[in-house]
Amino acid sequence: MFNQNLITFRQTLHQYPEKSGEEKETAQRIKEAVAKCQPTTLWTNIGGHGIVAIFDSGIAGKTVLFRADMDALPIEEANGFSYKSKNEGVSHKCGHDGHSTILLGLAQKLMKQPLKNGRTILLFQPAEETGQGAKAVLGAKEFANLKIDYAFALHNVPSFPKGQIVYRRGPFNPAVISLIIQFQGLKTHAAEQEKGINPAYAVAQLISKIQTLNNTDLSSPDFCNITIIYTRIGSKDYGTAAGDGELHYTIRCWTKAKLEATKKTILAMIVSVCETEKLAYVTQWLYYFAATANDDFAVTCIENAAKRLNFDHFKKRFPFKWGEDFGLFTEHIPGAMFGLGAGLETPALHQPDYDFPDDIIPNGIDMFYDIALQLNNRGKD
């Protein structure tokens, strides 16, 4: 049985969740806990409220990064257990409390069983849910000087057996971006709509045209999942024809190249339709998540760890469809993300009754530690 204190720590993080960019108290709790593990170096306020703990053996070897996210979501919790969220309208519905606890457990293990060579870097990253955290961390001057050889992360995955290791080569999840299109026409009396410029017709055309770009074949390298998130036209003033509106989308593609090509196609559609309808428009791209491109050697380390530890493991045929800002790390550093099964009956991520299962914490810790051993002192432990 692993340290009961880790369960207490995870449940404390769960009780006091903080949204992306606001993780001040979460970071303080993590800092105090990690400091007890006696890292060689401990940095705070990296890329916002990020924490970096470095365990340096002092002997040449690989520099390996393990990353966990720590932000929560603006979702009201539906659970009634004793450690239910105390922050109204905010809760850990993606398991980042569990991910951070796993990384703390790795810090404890590195203190008790230090590696004989190389450096192990633990990153507790803020603002994953908005896609801003990885970018901010990678842009921090302290982080730029670390010269990392490999980077790893995990994400708990409901609908897979508890503790199962889920991995794949190539894309682990897609490149994702959100789009807002704002239309400005001209309001007029509803009885004289010919005197105005109503965006409704442009919105209808664009919805139809953009829909044709969807390719939901998971096996296709040109996979493209475009989803309408929100739309609005005019206001509830029944004597006035609409003169403005907006349309929101998310776009998901397996690769950055496909995402960029899709963006260009959509922009061309917007220009064409708005010119025809004599509409002014503004576009805004936001919440970009790079595709996580798993490095072959890094995936081999994950697969070897699962086999060495006798963990149930599953090679996934297709990537997951959700975004993850760890992908930005894999654009700059060879690395990989793997899934950690959260249970067949566990509610889906981002659902109000979801909760990270504490009994999979040891699997995450052991996987990270074994990967570190493979890259630095395999055969010497």
Could you characterize what this model shows?
The chain has 381 residues and is α/β, with parallel strands linked by helices. The chain folds into 2 domains: 4-173 and 293-376, Aminopeptidase (3-Layer(aba) Sandwich), CATH 3.40.630; 175-289, Alpha-Beta Plaits (2-Layer Sandwich). It has 10 helices and 16 strands. The protein has helices at residues 4-15, 24-35, 96-112, 133-139, 141-144, 200-211, 256-277, 296-308, 327-332, 361-376; strands spanning 41-46, 50-56, 63-69, 119-125, 150-157, 165-167, 170-173, 175-184, 188-189, 224-233, 240-241, 244-253, 280-289, 292-294, 313-315, 335-341. The strands form 4 sheets. It has an 8-stranded mixed beta sheet with strand order 1-2-4-3-5-16-6-15, with helices on both faces. Helix 6 (200-211) packs antiparallel against helix 7 (256-277). The longest helix is centred in the last third of the chain and has 22 residues, at 256-277. The two termini are 21 Å apart. The model has no long low-confidence stretch (mean pLDDT 96).
